[in-house]
Specification:
Blueprint: H1 8-22, H2 29-36, H3 40-43, H4 50-73, H5 78-95, H6 97-105, H7 112-117, H8 119-129, H9 136-159, H10 169-190
Length: 210
């Protein structure tokens, strides 16, 4: 299909499409070459190896997610911004599941380029939380909590664990965000610091359960 017209852009676009359609695990340079109708060796004229290509795909995924989230936030602040960000985050994860999965694997990878760029995931969240009057450490904790809520909900939904009750999934997601906002408002009022006040009461747990 492609011969002299083969470019890095064409290779990257097709790699992204294949990964979005079939997932990252089954992706190979040979599969990509077969899709493009070229010899595998032709790909290595543009990318040194598979890792180099996956790095480009990862950067594309990070930039796309970051752009979608920042566009959703716009000039919004506080609750409105949190809600818009939560909606954009879930929409991206559902529409681009394979790319989202790739983003989630970056921290445990050995790819230094992607590990450096992964701060794009937290930047929009921090930007939104800074529109609240929060103590610095509490804000850092809350951005973790926010991302954990979104990621946990998305994973549970995709795995099919929300099919056991007839209540609306969208309402559940909205409730999760509203509960998070209640916590933010509480922290904002109390200006809690990271001290013993933030520890949970001891619970009796059998050693076998640990």
């Amino acid at each position: 299909m492609y011969h002299k017209g083969l470019t890095k852009g064409i290779i990257l676009q097709n790699a992204i499409k294949i990964i979005e359609d079939t997932g990252i695990k089954g992706f190979t340079m040979k599969l990509l070459a077969d899709t493009l109708g070229v010899k595998t060796a032709s790909l290595y004229k543009h990318y040194d190896n598979l890792d180099a290509l996956i790095t480009e795909v990862g950067l594309y995924a990070l930039n796309t997610q970051h752009t979608k989230m920042m566009q959703a936030i716009g000039r919004k602040e506080r609750d409105e911004a949190v809600i818009a960000l939560a909606q954009a985050y879930r929409k991206f994860a559902k529409k681009h599941h394979a790319l989202y999965a790739l983003i989630m694997e970056i921290p445990t990878s050995e790819n230094e380029i992607l590990q450096t760029a992964v701060s794009m995931v937290t930047e929009p969240v921090v930007k939104v939380l800074k529109t609240f009057s929060l103590e610095e450490n509490r804000m850092k904790h809350l951005q973790r909590v926010f991302r954990a809520i979104l990621h946990g909900f998305i994973n549970q939904e995709r795995a099919g664990y929300f099919t056991y009750f007839t209540v609306d999934i969208e309402e559940s997601y909205n409730l999760a965000i509203l509960v998070f906002l209640e916590g933010v408002h509480s922290a904002e009022k109390e200006h809690l610091t990271i001290t013993g006040e933030n520890t949970l009461p001891n619970a009796d747990i059998d050693e076998d359960d640990e």
